[in-house]
Amino acid sequence: xxxxxxxxxxxxxxxxxxxxxxxxxxxxxxxxxxxxxxxxxxxxxxxxxxxxxxxxxxxxxxxxxxxxxxxxxxxxxxxxxxxxxxxxxxxxxxxxxxxxxxxxxxxxxxxxxxxxxxxxxxxxxxxxxxxxxxxxxxxxxxxxxxxxxxxxxxxxxxxxxxxxxxxxxxxxxxxxxxxxxxxxxxxxxxxxxxxxxxxxxxxxxxxxxxxxxxxxxxxxxxxxxxxxxxxxxxxxxxxxxxxxxxxxxxxxxxxxxxxxxxxxxxxxxxxxxxxxxxxxxxxxxxxxxxxxxxxxxxxxxxxxxxxxxxxxxxxxxxxxxxxxxxxxxxxxxxxxxxxxxxxxxxxxxxxxxxxxxxxxxxxxxxxxxxxxxxxxxxxxxxxxxxxxxxxxxxxxxxxxxxxxxxxxxxxxxxxxxxxxxxxxxxxxxxxxxxxxxxxxxxxxxxxxxxxxxxxxxxxxxxxxxxxxxxxxxxx
Length: 475
Hints:
about 475 residues; nucleus; 13 helices; alpha/beta; 5-stranded parallel sheet; Aldehyde Dehydrogenase, Chain A, domain 1; NAD; transit peptide
């Protein structure tokens, strides 16, 4: 049994029974049986079920958003926005259910057809993190479902209530349509369940969202059995502001990217590179904006900034601030724990560190923004790319040539490359994911659906002859 706590006051909310390995075994068997039913349903009909799931979530969007705020700690508007993201991906998946498939290719042989057939992989395991306890499961499950897969979900133990609530909503839609609820199964649990999923050959694809350290362990376990994994790991994301930037865009963008979700997004801005000619002006304006951030209980609709998720996260924040000071940096705003119940810390701005300071190159899951000076485009593009992760990045400029150099082969090496917008707040229509230690996986839109399917190249001979490819004669 795990007790979940409210990050805003560290009061217990509920006790949730965690599954053991026997529960896991039973759940996998039921999910595999349910897949046999689901895979036989035509894709557009599967899309109709996913549409109903989106509608059911839409009807409960505020109460579910409130639960996210209560258990995870993000502010109410972000909690609702996260559920909205699941609703949006359901809507997207409905249309996709009538579009997935492969091409008919020209065959070099007379009387032959060459086609590409896409089939579901089978059972998709989804391990999600505490910071997006609804949306990331939604990205995976909605797309996996229209592709014809069953899903097995393990959420973060600290957001177990959210996992149970979402699963109940989805299961009711399935069962109302006389389909097994096990098509979307849930096992609450810790590392033992996650390890079982990674090592289980019956899990045909494992989507893992979490830290780079754990993601590497998951990848190795899955690869050992030649399984498939989809990894969404860390990010040490940068915003670059050139001297010609519109500061009316820069200040709110940097504020949202660094302070939103109390810095606990994988796409949060951790590094802010400012051209030396505007450095002092931007720092002053940003500090003024930080001072106006409304801090409060996350479930209040006017709160913009809530607590960190756990007491341990507060300790990590304080350790990072101490390292900043030891490495020669200056805290120009924040840097302290807020004197109130819960896991509240001040949003923090740091200046005076070199671009390659050890703490700057380390992803810290906290609201700490390192402000760094640069002179030239070439050097700052290189500094953007010098961290191990490659998730999100953004520049602010009006120079069209610079924009396309940023998007090109010598520009950002990230999976998300933005211009004049924050690093966070991605839309569902594009593929979401990153390079290097971020894991290389892609979820949500574009052609991410292909990761949830297996591809077969099929050659059909409808003639009475047997010509061989490449003109080979074997007689």
